[in-house]
Amino acid sequence: MNKLEAFGYIAAQAARGEITFPTSVNAVLRLQLALEDPDCHVEEAIRLVLSEPQLAARTVAMANTAAFGAGGVQVTNVRAAVLRIGYRRLRGLVAALMVRQFGHRIADPVLRAKAEQLWAHTAYVAALAQVLARRVTRVDPDTALFAGIVHEVGGFYLLSRADEFPGLLEDDPENWGALCEDVVSAEVIRKLSIPADVAGAIAALRDGVLNPEPHTLLDTLLLANRYATVASPLGAGEDRLDAGPLDAAIVRALLDEAADTAQALGDATLV
Predict the structure, then answer these.
(1) Is the model more confident about 117 or about 14?
(2) Among 2, 32, 70, 143, which residue's CB has the most CB atoms within a 10 Å radius?
């Protein structure tokens, strides 16, 4: 099967709704559904977080970032961390764990390196989106963080399938964009029950145009992608740090503020 046939095969599967996730992703999906249950008591939430060591560690780390810290007082346990960050922010951490699970079954070292770079890019975009939402666009910061975490989920899914199709991810921006953003991402996002406002902003990213006065979730994601210090390995020559509407000093301040949140989301190494 050549590359174009592989594109067509995966796109056709997605169009039919035949998207299958690794077992580890399905496990985190069950965790997400449990936490989103309105009857989920805080004690049950704490138990669920403790059942996933990576999530427990990231929850404590996130609670101790500048974005969520209270007067410099550090928390050292999951209970205090969950109470500090709240359920809505916990949703973002669960999404981060879920997105990273797509990379765990990748065997090819080149593809694993792409997945690790894609995660590093994702973490920076998510952290920057949260800061930009607070400081620039004035959209909900928690929604912006979540949107940043899941905005490349279609790319992670394709990386998880690329072992089956040698050459699938060779440079081919036109076909890659049509496959990833227009077909696969849409179906993966549907399967993950991503909220409509977030799904719409992600769908509009590839051809999105920044408003003169940025004020939407799409604007937030466009800016975060432009200023993220790690580029996506799946992108096609995006504008970088010096080509945006914000003053360079403001960008540096935003990057500094986002750095600890990006770190709290986890380093790029897949385990």
Answers:
(1) 117
(2) 143
